[in-house]
Amino acid sequence: MAIKDLKANSGNVDIVAEVVSKEEPRSFEKFGKKGQVCNAQLADATGKVKMTLWNDEIDTVKVGDKIHLQNGWCSEFKGEKQVSAGKFGKIEIMQGAGQVLTNDPEMLAQARAGSDDDGEEKEEDLNADDLEEYVD
């Protein structure tokens, strides 16, 4: 589902979007229970929507994360659509800020091998083809 297709007061919201901004959390107390709430802005290729984050969700979701909201809820407040995980939904972090998810064998091999701080390959990271250059 795309952000442009969200309908107010509907459940089973399933969207993938990037967190483009996040406000400071606010504390509240209701029915003798304390908690925190925070608004974030989500965006995909079709638009933007506000997302309400509650308690533990606030620390889980960061600006730059690509998230998958599953079985969420879309409401409307002051004429603006908002989504949240609600009571039955789930927020999955698909790609963290600055993190790249891949199944490219070359990238995975490089990640496993590591590199020196100066960006140069370690001698033990060189394969047989690379070693030919070093043979006199």
Main CATH class of the domain at 3-95 = Mainly Beta
Content of β-strand: 35-45%
**What is the number of beta strands?**
7
Identify the CATH architecture of the domain at 3-95.
Beta Barrel
**Helix content bin:** 10-25%
Q: What does the model show?
A:
The chain is mainly beta. It has a domain at 3-95: Nucleic acid-binding proteins (OB fold (Dihydrolipoamide Acetyltransferase, E2P)). 13% of the residues lie in helices and 45% in strands. It contains 3 helices and 7 strands; from the N terminus they run ββββαβββαα. The protein has helices at 56-60, 105-113, 128-131, and strands spanning 10-22, 26-30, 33-44, 47-54, 66-77, 80-84, 90-95. A 5-stranded mixed β-barrel has the order 1-3-4-6-5. The termini are far apart.
What order do the helices and strands come in, and which of them pair?
Blueprint: E1 10-22, E2 26-30, E3 33-44, E4 47-54, H1 56-60, E5 66-77, E6 80-84, E7 90-95, H2 105-113, H3 128-131
Parallel strand pairs: 4-6
Antiparallel strand pairs: 1-3, 1-5, 2-3, 3-4, 5-6, 5-7
What descriptors fit this protein?
136 residues; OB fold (Dihydrolipoamide Acetyltransferase, E2P); five-stranded mixed barrel; 3 helices; 45% strand
